[in-house]
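Dear colleagues,

As part of the handover before I leave the project, I'm documenting each prediction I ran so the next person doesn't have to rerun anything. This entry is a single chain, and its sequence is reproduced below.
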Amino acid sequence: MQDLVEGRCGWCGNDPLYVKYHDEEWGRPVTDDKKLFEFLILESAQAGLSWITVLRKREGYRQAFCRFEAEKVAQMTAEDVERLMQFDGIVRNRLKIKSAVNNAKQFMAIQKEFGSFYQYTLSFFPNRQPVVNHFKSLKEIPATSPESNAMSKDMKKRGFKFFGSTICYAHLQATGFINDHLEGCCCKTPSASPDRGLGL
């Protein structure tokens, strides 16, 4: 895999959906809790799969999980789980579906304790500031970091499922708490591409 393809991080290749995601979302700061919950659901679903697989099913996840409203997802029942096991718009994995319901409850508990999930996430960062890395090649990008190790450990203690350090790191990259766009990438500077819309 090339480090840069047409001025972008090479991991997105030429797939239009992947390129759009790279240009408009990945690595851009998210402060909105609903969007953070969406990525938490999607990243957990991605465990063991490629990210593009989940990205292609994003609309299915939006339908399945109440447009990513944590309060509604937290109230889903065993009957809802069975219903979603028959819905081919998502990855039909019973443990992952059940974990989404469980994680919604834990997500709300964190909101109550910290004021927002965004504030909770910042608490794991030095000076409560996002990290901007300056990697020049894809092989330099790590799978975990001290922040993802600490955050995933705390989340596991709180009862979250499918959110180990590697998944947590991917979540932090996606939501801009860690900027891993390569040097030379057109999206390295946040102002270099359009603002991330919360409805994407």
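The beta strands are 4-5, 8-9, 131-132, 178-179. The longest strand covers residues 4-5.

All the best with the project,
I.
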